[in-house]
Amino acid sequence: MGGGEQGFRGKIGPATLITTLTSRTAFLYLQCMTVENALTLAGQGWILSSQNVTKFCAGITLYLRDPEGTCAAIQVGSWGSQAESLLASLASAGANYPNILNQLLQQIQGHYQGEPGESCVDIHQILEEAAGAPGTEGQSPSRALAVLLDHALAGSCFHVLPSPQYFVDFVFRLHGDESQNLTLSGKDLEGRASRQTRTPPKAHLGDSDSVWDTVCLSASDVLEVYGISEKEGVSPHAWAQLSPALLQQQLSGACLVDVHFPAQGDLSVTEKYLYSSLATLIICLASLFGLVIVFCASCKNVSHYVIQAFLGMAVGSLTGDAVLHLIPKVLGQHSHGEESSEHESPEFVWRLLGALGGFYALFLLENLFNILTSRPSEDKEDNSTCNHSHGMSLQLVTDELSHQRQPQQQEGSRTDLVILPGDPWLLSPLPPELQLLPYMITLGDAIHNFADGLTVGAAFTASWKTGLATSLAVLCHEVPHELGDFGALLHAGLSVSRALLLNLVSSLTAFAGLYVALGIGSNEQSEIWILAVAIGLFLYVALCDMLPSMMNEKDKRPWLLFFLHNLGLLSGWAILLVLSLYEENITF
């Protein structure tokens, strides 16, 4: 090194160093860079020794990079912490170390004024001198900053870009043979470029051929290397000149950063927990709110038809979510990435809709056949003997509530509540072994709600749109399901308050399932498997539980019932179809 290095080898007065360095910037009017302020970094005393030179070099480098910003930091007392942060970032940079130093040189160049006639130095020379210093092993941020300040003291100019020849040398060094010539045999540059971008070469700081290998150059930098004006643009001749630089940047992978940009519809961890918890809370409250309508005796008929519409919508939303949304997602058809968005086609959605069309055709045929061939006497008989939980749920609830409102002659056992006129199969009290029935119902409901929570959690882990669709499906089937359980609890002899309490407790297990799914659903494979199981759950509940309730329901207004069932069914399918087709265009 020159005379500047001799100063750092021995001792140098801070006043001389500060006066010289401040004269190199274009901000001579700034009065913040005084000896007193500099001593806050250099330590006590007027001698800059090797023990405190590291932090001092970092602080002065910050001033050369941004004089005004450093003066502001000095005033608020944060200059020292900023210097320590710079040293820490350089020490932990790893392969990005040359990039950070190169950025520092670029920023310094905007404010720095060298001495006329002095030679120029670049990052390659600075790193080479720092790595070759005695007692220095590997990359040494403190030594590199000291070398940088030494050249600044000498008035050297800083050249922060490689020469045009470097890019050509890089390509031949990477793909040339022993004769330094490129050959077609085994030299598939396209394939090598693809692999090279995955594993960029590591730079050895003392190797003159590899200092720039991991430095990412901007478009302006590349144009400046070849002396091309940005205003004039790139001509065909200039493009031919730029080609080696563009090829080198591609082959080195220097500009590739392994950063995951969330796909459209992805949620942060906080948002996943917030939105999924809110959806689960709404599901729990809505399912209990469905019980409110049965407390109004005058609303008995209206509430009966509302529940029937919910049954239809439950079947539609459950089958629609499973077939139109979850099955494509599990099979990898619903892609949220940019690369697949150009090739994605909704054709598979229409094919799956055709499967639902076949289901609907037979549903219509059977319903019409039952309506047209049934007799009024059969309707009445069937209505009294059907013992399916959802078919009887509303009647059970309203009958039990009416029975509990009647004045009682004496307290008696709660099992007396189950002896209802018109119900031949309930003419005797529950036997002792069936007194555990309410708790068995509650346990089964708790397991069911836990599975619902797992499904909602996995859906929100995938995306908020999948979470919305799944939450809708769960909500629609929870209202009639909870109503059926409520009626069964009342039938088992529980009071209204006790039945509501057990329903509420069992619904809270949905949150346990939710947080389990969110915890393990961060793994993509776990998410897919949970959704795959959810498909089976949804199809079973829809086809083996809800659908028989619809088919077995008898009413004195069969055409109104037929209309409500179809309205709910088609509404559920329509909502899920729109979401499946246009979910990529939905933003918030």
UniProtKB/TrEMBL annotation:
InterPro entries: ZIP (IPR003689), ZIP4_12_EF-hand (IPR049406), ZIP4_N (IPR041137), ZIP_Transporter (IPR050799)
Occurrences of domain Zinc transporter ZIP4/12 EF-hand (ranges): 187-254
GO cellular component, one term: recycling endosome membrane
Transmembrane segments: 273-297, 309-328, 348-365, 500-522, 528-547, 559-582
Annotated segments matching region Disordered: 183-206
Membrane-topology annotation of the record: Multi-pass membrane protein
Subcellular location: Apical cell membrane; Recycling endosome membrane
Keywords of the record: Cell membrane, Endosome, Ion transport, Membrane, Metal-binding, Signal, Transmembrane, Transmembrane helix, Transport, Ubl conjugation, Zinc, Zinc transport
GO molecular function annotations of the record: metal ion binding; monoatomic cation:bicarbonate symporter activity; zinc ion transmembrane transporter activity
Stored PANTHER family: SOLUTE CARRIER FAMILY 39, ZINC TRANSPORTER ZIP4
Annotated protein name in UniProt: Zinc transporter ZIP4
Species this protein is from: Vombatus ursinus
Protein encoded by which gene: SLC39A4
